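Encode chain A's predicted structure.
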Amino acid sequence: MAEGLLRYEAGDRFAVFSAGTQPAPVRTAAVEVMRELGIDISCQRSKGVAEFAGQEFDVVITVCDKAREECPAFPGDPERLHWPFEDPASFVETAEERLVAFRRLRDRIHGRVMVLLGE
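Encoded structure for chain A:
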C-alpha cells in the first residue's frame, strides 16, 4: 500500500520501489481498500530486498519493526525512515474486520506519505 500511495501522490517526482524481508502475495484486502481511493495496486508484486542489492536509494522507509531490524544496508548511505505499522491481517478474524483494519492502515500510511511530501 505504501508503494501505491507514494506513486500516486508523488507522481513522477520519485522512482518508487518496495520490497519485503519476507515477500508474500499482495493481500486482497489491500487491493480492495486502495481501489476505494482510485489506486490500483493489483499489478504490484511482492519483491524481496535481495532483488535490490547493490542499488543506491535516496531514502529507505521501513514500515514494520521486523523490516527495520532485517533491512540490509544499501550503498550511498540513504536516509532511513521508520514508520512502525502492524500487519492488520495478523490480528483480525472476519473479512469485514480485515477491511476496517486495512482501511485504517491505508489512512495512516497515506498521512505519513503526505507529510513526507510536505503536503
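The beta strands are 59-62, 79-82.
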